[in-house]
Design brief:
With 255 residues, this protein is an alpha/beta fold. The chain contains eight helices and ten strands.
Length: 255
Amino acid sequence: MLGFSNGSNNSNDGPLIKLSQVVKTYHGLAGDVLALKGIDLQIRSGEFVAITGKSGSGKTTLINMMTGLDHPTSGEIWVSDTAVHKLRPEKAAVWRGQTVGVVFQSFELIPTLSVLHNVTLPMDFANHSTIRRQRKRAMHLLEQVEIAEHAHKLPSEISGGQQQRVAIARAMANDPPILVADEPTGSLDSVTSEAVIDLFEALVGQGKTVVLVTHDRDVAKRATRTIVLTDGKIMPDYRQEDDSQVWKSQEVSHA
């Protein structure tokens, strides 16, 4: 059993993440693109939420709003008692380092650093503890994701699935209450994908809140709630047990 510490938010019984009338417009030479159209969304502490939809539906934009990687054109984004939509970039980076672990499809590991040093890096940025304690926590996290034996290898020396495990360990380095993953299994085979989702489920079991973007029907069905985006809006009255048309349309769009 994975032994991640409990980072759940217990300040009150309200939503941990709340988006109110979030609009995002991108301005380009070809004109304006309305990526999000008045999103209202609440996610409670300890939920495992999957976000899906066709390419261009606004999935990545939505999680970039939640994590403070991007700002809305209008609307409000609250994570616990923090108004994320008001954070300046430097403040957002500090807040994100303490509150949200982000996992990318492309892993985003630094190729010149060992697996161990990739995991200690967020702790170093946050000025957490001594180098010795950072390394001890990093090794503990690598043990939890069953990759500790490769701690001193470079990312290029391990498989894609192993790199994603390292990326998850790195995302948990500062023990954030929230983990956000953008297509974390998109480049992995089915067996490895299942193992990665097992890790996310273990984190939820330890009190973390997990939000992930996926095009994989089987991955989405492992979540406790699925949110479907269509043209920048959340599909109303979506039922996970009656989703054949949603997934069929996605398969066509990615053929």
